[in-house]
Design brief:
The chain folds into 3 domains: about 5-210, Aldehyde ferredoxin oxidoreductase, N-terminal domain (Aldehyde Ferredoxin Oxidoreductase,  A, domain 1, 4-Layer Sandwich); about 220-415, Aldehyde Ferredoxin Oxidoreductase Protein, subunit A, domain 2; about 420-575, Orthogonal Bundle (Aldehyde Ferredoxin Oxidoreductase Protein, subunit A, domain 3). About 40% of the residues lie in helices and about 15% in strands. A 6-stranded mixed β-sheet has the order 2-1-6-3-4-5. Strands 8-7-12-9-10-11 form a 6-stranded mixed β-sheet. Strands 13-14-15 form a 3-stranded antiparallel β-sheet. Helix 8 crosses helix 21, helix 13 runs parallel beside helix 15 and helix 18 packs across helix 20. The longest helix has 18 residues, at about 510-530.
């Protein structure tokens, strides 16, 4: 089918269904609205339209109140091109108080797209546990029998009953753990910032989607996407074999692998938790929808079978808590997926508790590498039992109550991912200006500093690079492309993204301006919610404590770099001043 014939047949833009589903759980009201073409041209989809809808929603609210909204959005490429299995969720974070967008791959995103909706906007609070079923018609169904059941069992029950794809919370979300995740396809996570707790606050257990249509492909795009697949196949041999655990030997050798709550950047037992070690426990490989790479690993430890762990989890439940037992990491990964917990924040909060214990700042004895205690703590956090109730609040809140703020490793309340910024200055800047708190995916500058020779990782001349990459990633998260595919097949190029959009929608987009617009609107939302430049701050440890290699961030140079970033962004006192055209 050609683009012209598609428009004649369907009367709408290809790549979009043209409809958003709205659900008020308090009033049990279900309605639909048309997708606005102007909104599409200004924000594309996914993360972009998500922040637009969040910005227009009720403000200055508790993230766990009924007034907070959950915005599920697909993008124009979701389910249509290679590397497009993703969907996005935007809300106000209960962990950071910032705007939060999180995305996940697997199978759920394309299933939502094929259901006939581009997105779902949920608000309110159900009187009793419920789930949403989208199967030709839309229903709010009773989930009382599912409450208290973990994510994997919930998925099994709902998939068997409805033959659709499931995204759900576990006990952590039900109990409002501030870093609870939302899980799709059992082991894929909308992981960061507490989206699971927002669902729990609404008594929303799950969303089940069953496709009722398929998206026609344009004949003229067939060769284009074959070419993209061939390019990525050449570049992805290591990723295909190991998945993201491929990274860990490199970060360790470069002194940026977080170890024992970021006290060090090297782990002496890294060979026990690296990609080769993980492959010894491999059952099979797994891929997202329509992906030729299949970078995910399904692993086994004793009687536990799970998807993962990814690089971040190998660090958060490995080097950063002083653990060298790969099987214990697999078990921790499985527990977090079952309970619905972000593995980064969960592992790092436990690492912080270990250092508090070492310094005798808490009564509990939690020793480095003690995985029996760690596995017990994961369950206690999910159920908010004993010390788990304290740790369920996240590193920042624990430090405010127990002390240790100088070694509480977070930005804006979000725990740092697995790249020590003392050996990657671009990441240091990226962490502090990320609108959702510390995140490696908001610029992905680590890929340029650590895995290419193009940029000196110790240079402070990074504002322009970080700003451009942030805006590129905002577009990628709105197209909803896999970041590896976007980088390898399309070179993270605005022009390439515009060419893809033109091919799919027939419309002309200015993606560079769209990327800047999304970042600015997120930033403006945060400032209007009470954040300020004071929140663009790294943990004190990175300015005062050298790693064994002597890595340390120069406070004066860092401040100058941050000011230059604000200047390039045309922000006054760190706040956008340009009028944002919606």
């Amino acid at each position: 089918m050609t683009q012209k014939r598609y428009m004649e047949k369907h009367g709408r833009m290809f790549g979009y269904n043209g409809k958003i589903l709205r659900i008020d759980l308090t009033k049990k009201k279900i309605s639909t609205e048309s997708l606005d073409k102007k909104e599409v041209l200004n924000y594309i989809g996914g993360r972009g339209i998500g922040i637009k809808k969040l910005y227009e929603s009720k403000r200055k609210i508790d993230p766990l109140s009924p007034e907070n909204i959950l915005i599920f959005m697909t993008g124009p490429l979701t389910g249509f091109t290679p590397f497009s299995a993703f969907y996005n969720l935007t809300t106000k974070s209960p962990l950071t108080g910032t705007c939060l967008s999180s995305h996940s791959g697997g199978l759920f995103g394309p299933e939502l797209k094929f259901s006939g909706f581009d997105g779902i906007i949920l608000k309110g609070r159900s009187e009793k546990p419920c789930y949403i079923l989208i199967d030709n018609e839309v229903e709010i169904k009773d989930a009382s029998d599912l409450w208290g059941i973990d994510c994997k069992e919930t998925t099994d029950i709902l998939e068997k009953e409805h033959k659709g794809k499931v995204v759900c919370i576990g006990q952590a979300g039900e109990n409002l753990v501030r870093f609870a995740s939302l899980m799709n396809d059992k082991d894929r996570a909308l992981g960061r910032g507490g989206v699971g707790a927002v669902c729990g606050s609404k008594n929303l257990k799950a969303v089940v989607v069953r496709r009722n249509k398929k998206i026609d492909a344009f004949m003229e795009t067939k060769d284009e996407f074959k070419k993209a697949l061939e390019i990525v196949k050449v570049k992805s041999k290591g990723l295909k074999k190991y998945g993201t655990p491929l990274v860990i030997d490199t970060t360790n050798s470069m002194g940026v692998l977080p170890t024992r709550n970021f006290n060090e950047g090297e782990f002496e037992y890294v060979e026990n938790i690296n990609g080769e070690s993980l492959l010894k426990n491999l059952i099979k490989k797994k891929a997202c929808f329509s992906c030729p790479i299949g970078c995910s690993n399904v692993t086994k430890a004793d009687n536990i079978i799970t998807e993962g762990p990814e690089y971040e989890t190998l660090c958060s439940f490995g080097s950063n808590i002083g653990n060298s037992d790969i099987k214990a990491i697999i078990k921790a990964n499985d527990l977090c997926n079952r309970f619905g917990l972000d593995t980064i924040s969960c592992g790092n909060t436990i690492a912080f508790a270990m250092e508090l214990s070492e310094k005798e700042m808490i009564d509990e004895k939690i020793e480095w590498g003690d995985m029996n205690t760690v596995l017990s703590l994961i369950e206690k956090i999910a159920k908010r039992d004993g010390i788990g109730d304290l740790l369920s609040q996240g590193t920042k809140r624990v430090s405010e109550k127990m002390g240790g703020k100088e070694f509480a490793i977070h930005v804006k309340g979000m725990d740092l991912p697995a790249y020590d910024p003392r050996g990657s200055i671009g990441m240091a800047l990226s962490y502090v200006v990320s609108n959702r708190g510390a995140c490696h995916l908001r610029s992905s500058v680590y890929a340029y500093e650590l895995f290419t020779s193009e940029h000196d990782r110790f240079s402070y001349e990074k504002p322009k690079l970080v700003k451009e990459l942030q805006e590129i990633m905002a577009v990628v998260d709105s197209l909803l492309l896999c970041k590896f595919g976007a980088r390898s097949a399309y070179g993270n190029s605005f022009k390439e993204f515009e060419r893809l959009l033109k091919m799919v929608t027939g419309m002309d987009f200015d993606t560079e301006k769209i990327g800047e617009r999304i970042i600015n609107l997120e930033r403006l939302y945060n400032f209007e919610e009470g954040l300020s430049v004071k929140d663009d701050a790294l943990p004190e440890r990175f300015f005062t404590e050298k790693t064994s290699r002597g890595y340390l961030i120069d406070r004066t140079k860092f401040k100058k770099m941050l000011d230059e970033y604000y200047k390039l962004s045309s922000w006054k006192d760190g706040k956008p001043v340009k009028k944002i055209k919606n």
